[in-house]
Amino acid sequence: KVLAAKGKREEHQHGSMFSVKTLLDRSCFETIDDSSPEFINFVSILEHVLNHRLKGQTTWFGYESPRSFWDYIKAACGKVPHNCIRSIESMENVRSSRAKGRAWIRVVLMEKRLSEYISSALRDFKTTRRFYEDGAIMLGEEAGLLADTLIGLNTIDFSFCLKGDGLDGSCPAVIDYTPYLKFTQNADSISSDEEEMRTMGSSGSESSTPDKTATAASIFTEQSNLVSKCKRFEQKYRLALEQKGYLEELVRLREAQLSEAVSHNKALQQNLADTHLSHTLEKEQLEYIILELQDQLKSFQSLEQLSADMSLSQTSLEPSHTLNKEETPSLRGLCGSLTSVASYKSLASLKSSECLASPATEISSPGITPS
Fold first, then answer.
1. Where do the RUN domain residues begin and end (predicted)?
2. CA 79, 85, 90, 96: dihedral to nearest 10 degrees?
3. Bridge partners, 108 (sequence order)
4. How far apart, in whole angstroms, are the C-alpha atoms of residue 276 and residue 285?
């Protein structure tokens, strides 16, 4: 059982490496999408690697229900900056956990960040140990090699459609190993065959002269050295090309983050300027209201002072006014009694009657003459 598990791990590891290489080769000729056989095989291998010896979810009754690798990705990759976990969780047409995991693989491949997510998840060893059993690929050294191998996929421009129903397929992913079993003779193998033919020809001609044999052997050794050097240079060139693509993608990602930060900073500065302007306007309005209230207060105080002065003046004028009112009728009566004709006639008649009654008195009063 241990040997079978080990063989399965090696099978998945070599399959993932082969699938990455076939994807890189195919991307040189056409765009990789959901219909590409190389991509379908790669996704199947990656799902098997992420689901290898994944612990089940324990229910209330003590039973373990099957779990998808999406639960592990949510827990282990939550700290990845600018991650796409929330956007995948909010997709309406993707409901099952298996479908969300498949959508995540396609999204991170289009973002060229699959290796970054896997590396971040592996660094969270506590979460990885909590989700996987002993002997899982994600707990071994193969997982680190897998993350390093996935860096090469950052040079491929993937194009996927996430609106289809293919993501909700309940059938498990099936790995097809037949493309890796086919023998395709490349330039390296052809050159090695030519070397073998030349060595065979040189061994058949050993009966010839020693000088010819020595020169042929030296020529073959030089050619073999040149071929090995060419192979090493080719490997270094491929590695440098992959690193160049990875660095270009990293620079593009950092530039996008920088532009986003700059736009966010501009928005904050604009909000700060608007807030400062509104505060300035409010301050001016409050100052104007304070000045207006002060003017109104001064006018009220002057009106109160004026009303107080008027009340004092009224109180000082009231006694003389009443005195004038009392004296005026007596004077008028007096003047009226002296000037009225009736009173004058009554007075004259009275005096005449007095004179008739007492002549002595009339004679003795020289100031009164008969009319």
1. 33-165
2. -130
3. none
4. 14
Distance CA 121, CA 128 (A): 7
pLDDT tens, 45-87?
A: 999 999 988 988 776 665 667 888 999 999 999 889 999 999 9
Give the amino acid at 243. Answer: Q
In one-letter notation, the amino acid at residue 225 is N
Is pTM, for the whole model, over 0.85?
no
pLDDT tens across 301-351, in order? Answer: 888 888 888 888 888 766 555 444 444 444 444 444 444 444 444 445 544
Query: 11 and 152: one domain?
Result: yes
Question: CA 153, 108, 103: angle at the middle one, nearest 5?
Answer: 120
Task: Report which residue type is found at 316.
Answer: S
Are 23 and 122 in a shared domain? Answer: yes
Q: Cβ contacts of residue 76 below 8 Å, gap of 6+? A: 120, 121, 124, 127, 128, 131
| 92: three-class secondary structure by DSSP | coil
In a domain, 246, yes or no: no
Distance CA 22, CA 69 (A): 24
Q: Which helix (H) or strand (E) holds 137?
A: none
Question: What are the backbone angles phi and psi of residue 149, rounded to the nearest 5°?
Answer: -70, -35
Is 333 within the bounds of a domain? Answer: no
Under 8 Å between Cβ of 44 and 175: yes
